[in-house]
Amino acid sequence: MAIQYIQASLHEAHAALESLLLNKDALSTIERAADFLIDTFERKGRVYSCGNGGSMCDAMHFAEELTGRYRQDRAALAAAAISDPGHMSCVGNDLGYEYVFSRFIEAHGREGIVCWRLVLVERARIFWLLLMPRSHRA
User: Fold this and answer.
1) H helices within the chain, ranges in order?
2) Rounded to two decimals, what is the model's pTM?
3) Which one of 31, 64, 108, 132 has the fewest beta carbons within 10 angstroms of its own beta carbon?
């Protein structure tokens, strides 16, 4: 019985990847995002990632792959997830949960900083690039 659920999940994942591979607009967007990240790191910039629920775990994993070793030995890349429970609890309590990420970027954001927000939209993982407003740059 369980094998049917496993197969169904794997077929669903396969179909999603096939669909992505055939979506030229999506591939172009992913390429632009990758180029943007590469440019950020080449300029000695930093990447913050964030998300809610399971997407926070994805954001943490994303940052860990950049600071750790992903597929090959290389220098660590400047990245961190916005996941500090003290910050999230304080800002959520004092200002409202909707300000947790923007307040962090307001505090830590500088030119050369990129914030990636991971969200679940229509059952597919999508990266949304959030550009920090000029008013928050030091």
Assistant:
1) 2-22, 24-42, 54-67, 85-94, 100-108
2) 0.76
3) 31
